[in-house]
Amino acid sequence: MPFGLPNAPATFERLMETVLRGLPSEACLVYLDGIIIVGRTFEEHLNNLRKVFERLQKANLKLNPKKCRFFQKEFAYLGHHISSEGVKTDPEKLRQ
Fold first, then answer.
1. Which positions fall inside the Reverse transcriptase domain (predicted)?
2. How far apart are CA 26 and CA 45, in angstroms?
């Protein structure tokens, strides 16, 4: 995407929705400039990763490894703490 494009996150989101169309939300979620790939088991997660990677490759899109995090059991995203236990408000955001 061109550097400095003012609406780059929204453009990315629309592109990813097109590229990943048909994959269930239980496999991956796209919001603005991020893709979250999930699975109930490690095997399901690997399968979902493979599906997403195949779609990205078919669209000739590449990932920046420095911006990727793989096999995270929990993480903070958009002010929330996401884990197998569910979604909670990120405690760091409550202190601000």
1. 1-82
2. 10
Q: Dump pLDDT digits (tens) for 28-86.
A: 988 877 889 988 899 999 999 999 999 999 999 998 999 999 988 888 888 888 888 88
Q: Specify the residue for token string 């399968």.
A: 47
On the 0-12 / 13-18 / 19+ scale of CB atoms within 10 A, 30 is buried
Is 62 within 8 Å of 56 (Cβ atoms)?
yes
With beta carbons less than 8 A apart as the criterion, state whether 88 and 80 touch: yes
Domains parsed from the chain with CATH numbers: 7-93 (3.30.70.270)
Q: What is the pTM of this model?
A: 0.77
d(CA 42, CA 2) in angstroms, rounded, equals: 36
Q: Quick one: 16 exposed, middle or buried, by C-beta within 10 A (0-12, 13-18, 19+)?
A: buried
Q: Classify 73 as helix, strand or coil.
A: coil
